[in-house]
Every structure is written in C-alpha cells, then in structure tokens.
Amino acid sequence: MRITTVALLAFWAAFVSMTTTLRATAGEHNAGVQQIAIPAPERGTHIDVTIWYPASSGGETVLLGDSVFFEGTEAVRDAPVSAGRFPVILLSHGAGLGGRAEAMSWLATALAKQGFIVAAPTHPGNTGPDRSAAETMKLWLRPPDLSETLNAIEKSQAFQAHIEADRIGVVGLSMGGNTALSIAGARLDYELLASYCDTNDLNASLCDWVRLSGVDLREMDKEAASRDNRDNRMSFVMAIDPVPADVFLVESFAGISIPVTLINFGAEGEIPLTAQAANVAEAIPNATYEVIEDASHFSMFANCKPGAEEIAREEGIEEPICADGNGYSRDAIHAQLIEMIATAFDRVVR
Q1: How far is Cα 71 from Cα 270, in angstroms, rounded to an integer?
Q2: Secondary structure of residue 349 in the 3-state scheme
C-alpha cells in the first residue's frame, strides 16, 4: 500500500483525530517514564534503558530527547504505573543522531499514552561520548540488548504485574529495523556484512566513518555474527527503513513465524538501497509491506528546532536531517506512523 496524496494525508489526519478521541474517551493515560541500568553480560557492562508507560498522576515532568537539533517530548518521571496490564513494545533506535533511546521520545510517549509499555535500550557505541564504529557494526549484539531489556522488565517490581506476557512486540527504526528483523529470526550473512563497506555504494556516511575509524569488518567474529538471535517471546515485529536490510541470509527469512510489518519512507527511487524492504517482505511468510512516500528517512527524527539545519552544516553533517518528502509536516507523518504502529499491533497481537 502506498500512501502519497494530499487526500490520503487528510484522511489519516481525520482518522488519527477520531481514534485519538475514542481512546481518550476510553481513558487515555499520562506518559510516565523511568530510566534504569541493566546488565548486558555479552557486552561486559550495563546498558541504559528508558521505559515509557501508562501512568496515573504524580511524578516530575521532564523533557526527553531535547538536543541542539531536535525538540524534546515531555513525560512524567517515576509516576505510578496505571492500574491494569498492558502490551509491551521493545523499541530499537538507529545510529548517528538518532542513536539513543531518548531520541525516540516523540514516538514512545505517544504509544505510552495509548496504553503500551515501551522499553528502549541505548545500544552502546551508537552516539554520544561512547560513539564507536566498531561497536555500532556489531549488529548481532543489538537483539540481546532487547532480550535483556525484556528480562529486566519481567523481573521488575514496578512492571511485572502490569505486563501482558503474550502481547510483546518490537519496533525498530533504521538500524533498529535490522535489529527487529534479527530478533524475529532473520540471520546475518557474514560475507555480506563483511563486504558492506568495500565501497560507498550502500551507505556512504556510515562506511566513511567505519573506514576512518580503522575498522575492518572482515575481522568480525564470524560465528557470533551469523548466529540466530531469535527471541520466542516476541509476537510481532515492525521494521521501519531497516538499515542495513541487505546483509541478511535470505534463506533465514522463510523461517520467521511471527507477523512482520515492513515500512519504507520515500517515493520510488528515493528509498536508500540499503533500506529497501520490499524484497525482504516478499521473502517473509505473511509479511506486510507499506510505503509512506511523503516521508524521508529523516522523518523518524523528532521535529527540528529553528536553525537546526544551519547548525548541522556547520558541524559537517551533510544529511538533510530536517527534510521530509514533498514539504509535508513532520507532525503529520509522525501522527500517521504512530497510528500505523498502534493499529498493526492491535490487529496482530490484541
């Protein structure tokens, strides 16, 4: 299904408004947030996890995801969890400017208000002071970050009584989309990953960084890189512009047994080759594929602050981080994506 026209965007705006009203009538929640550190044995350290959740009154209002480039989103720190049980969405971020859990606050907060517990680990090495090309390219370590996050929530005194154990899904953005497919059962092809940065044809900005950092992808642990990272607790996976989508063992797609939705941002010919998910969807049994043509890969970022593009250029960032397709509002694209996630999760899991 391709979503392109002004009429369709108007439809989505009306649909989102209607369903938001219905959910509010049924009891929309506050968005609570907690930040914890959990053990990640394979990484030999702890990782930070941000958890958004349906909350009752109380707690302190905080702003998450705010940066020199992007607007933050408010949530209520340490507010009590609302009464009841809720489905869980594990959220996996991308690399670069979106390479931390808080960068997805615009999405996670909205889902928490709609009645989801949303938990996102910050995968080490992707951004900030610990930015590391070598760690970023260890794609096989990302799915265990999600599994350990779920382990921690299931044991948490705050959340274990509020989890619906048979309603757990994963949503991944960009490199997080690769992670989502991996935890569903797709396996990396060592040879494809090892040769990924032989040229700049697939991902120029990432591979320039990899080479400048002196990282040789052929020195990866072949056995670890090729392993099966499936977690059978997952009921549903959504991968949005999965990067890299072209480093998987194609035969492994046939073994995925849970529902999968793949979404690409951009018109035909504008979707980056390494994020192209149409062929992946064809190879996965009963997968769903959708395209939002009036978005760009950067639509998964929060709204830009005034002057963000100029600051980015001054800092040597060449990507159009504030550009969406055809000049459409990022708010409208976000509202559409949030509703697509909630609707897909409801249809498949609930």
Answers
A1: 26
A2: coil
Residue 117 neighbours by CB distance under 10 Å:
26
Residue-wise DSSP of 256-269: --S-EEEEEES-TT
d(C-alpha 346, C-alpha 350), whole Å: 5
Q: What is the pTM of this model?
A: 0.91
Q: Which of 13, 236, 16, 179 is nearest to 113 (CA)?
A: 16
Cα 67 to chain centroid, rounded: 18
Q: Over the stretch 75-118, which tens digit does the pLDDT of each residue have?
A: 999 999 999 999 999 999 999 899 999 999 999 999 999 999 99
What's the chain's Rg over C-alpha atoms? 19
pLDDT recorded at residue 11: 38
CA angle 152, 153, 155 (to 5 degrees): 70
Q: Angle 175-184/142-155 helices, nearest 10 degrees?
A: 70
In the block, residue with structure tokens 């690399």: 95
Q: Which residue has the tokens 């976000």?
A: 334
What are the structure tokens assigned to 205, written together? 């900005």
Our CA dihedral for 149, 154, 160, 162, rounded to 10 degrees, sits at 70
What is the three-class DSSP state of 39? strand
Contact status, residue 30 vs residue 74, Cβ threshold 8 Å:
no
Q: What is the pLDDT of residue 2?
A: 43
* Residue 332: other Cβ atoms inside 10 A: 18
**β strands within 67-187, DSSP E:** 73-77, 86-92, 117-121, 163-173
Q: Is the dihedral of CA 247, 204, 2, 73 positive or negative?
A: positive
Q: Are 52 and 76 in contact (CB under 8 A)?
A: no
Q: Measure the CA–CA gap between 120 and 113, rounded to whole angstroms.
A: 16
Rounded to 5°, angle at Cα 83 from 82 and 85: 100
CA 265 to chain centre: 13
The reported pLDDT for the residue numbered 128 is 75
Backbone angles phi, psi at 332, to 5 degrees: -65, -40
Strand partners for 240: 173, 263
List Cα–Cα distances, 25 to 30, 88, 316, 350, in angstroms: 14, 22, 47, 19
